[in-house]
Amino acid sequence: MLRGRTVVVGVSGGIAAYKACELVRWLKTRGASVVVAMTPAAAEFVTPLTFRTLSGNPVVRDLWGDQAPGFELPEGARAKVGGKVEHVDVAEAADAIVIAPATADLIARLVHGAAPDALTAVVLASPAPLVVCPAMDLEMWKSPATQANVRALGNRGATIVEPESGPLASGLEGPGRLAATETIGAAVERALERRASMKGARVVISAGRTEEPIDPVRMLTNRSSGKMGFALAAAARDRGAEVTLVAGAASVPPPEGVNRVAVGSAAEMEKAMIAASAKADIVVMAAAVADYRPARAVAQKIKRSDASLTLDLVPNADILAALGSQRSKGQVLVGFALETSSGVARARAKLRAKGIDLVVLNSPADSLGRDTNRVTLVEASSARKLPELSKREVAERVLDRVLELRGKSPDRGATRKRGVGSETSPRVRRLGAKRRA
Question: pTM score, two decimals?
Answer without folding.
Answer: 0.81
